[in-house]
Amino acid sequence: MSAGIVPCTGGDTPQGGRPCVTLAIMDPSLEQARQAFVAGIEHFERREFEAAAALFEQALQLAPGRPSVLMNLGVCCVHLGRFERADVCLRQALAADASQTDAWMAWGVTQMALGDWAQALHCHEQARALGADGPEFCLRWGECLAHQALLPQALQAFEQALAHDPELAEAWSQLAHVQRDMGQTAQAIAGYQRAMQLGADPELHRYYLAALNPQQPVVNAPAAYVEKLFDQYADDFEAHLVGQLGYQGHSMLLQQLPVDPTARFEQVWDLGCGTGLCGPLIRLRTDHLTGVDLSSAMVAKAQSLGVYDNLHAQDLVNFLKQTTTKADLVLAADVFIYVGWLDAVFEALSPRVKPGAWLAFTVEEADPGFEVQLHSSLRYAHALTYLQKLAVQHGWRWAKVHRAPLRLDQAQPLMGAYVYLQKA
Description:
The protein has helices spanning about 30-45, 50-60, 65-80, 85-95, 100-115, 115-130, 135-145, 150-165, 170-180, 185-195, 200-210, 225-235, 235-245, 250-255, 280, 295-305, 315-320, 345-350, 385-395, and strands spanning about 265-270, 285-295, 310-315, 325-330, 355-365, 370-375, 380, 395-410, 410-424. It is of the alpha/beta class.
């Protein structure tokens, strides 16, 4: 379930919606505020949230700090996707009156959208203590638990959601995610299959299923899934990947580049640039630096660094097909683990580089017998023999491979291959 799902404001589901409370009778001097509030309620009940929000804002200006106005304005802002404003309103409202179940649910949805999963879980626990229940609530509660790695509790929450509504496809899918992470492979497969039967995205769920069955043909990750994953991950990307997981792929990739350390490049492409980890490391060695990433949120983070000459929120194969320039260094740090089969990448890239250009990338190595392998982690691994075959087919010289850890996985170093090819 997406973090943007609107909260339950008076019924069991987020769509069922009465305003949180009614405004108490005010002093006659505040009659304008009362009228604006009442009019806002009427628009709210007709699901005219834009008009309702404007009226609640007016009431709040005339009667600052009123919990009832703050709560209803906050809920309206959740419906409208204005989560920063919702956060301010609901935080103030609950500080004044912490007994409002709907306000806790709305604030929980807000924190999910803002990526603060610990606070989102706290909000859902508070709402639950006040009696919140139902399929949509249990589904969101389970998501919060899963994001905090409380897998057994998340599993129970998703099971409760399904007890309320056995045909809630998203609950089957989320339940299967937890079962997969807990090593319950057979149950996870059944869950994904049931989600598909109930109308869940077939392309996405075939991808999930392929990760659990090595005998199935490898499928490429759906672009929309990868884009959404990294859009949600953008704010915490560097803190999590570098700070918590000790990621070093970007720095090691450049350290091991088999060229003179003083060599300069005219055109460098940073494919899958993310938030721009490679950018500052290569900026002083290039005349022109271009970053490409499928996630627009990641590109926005990279833009803020001020080191890229151009940035493109675009699928990397489409970028390669459309660009009119030619590169002499192409970087792809921790990118191909989300791509799968690389034939299309090499086919699009090879005509777009200069003779003697370098291609430097990282991969996780596939198990024996596999050319490309999709792990249950939903990351791809590649055989070096497969990569060597692609290099020969597309006119690249196999220059170097360096094996070293990429990051931590389950507190253990995850080994990877740092591969360097040079265009003939």
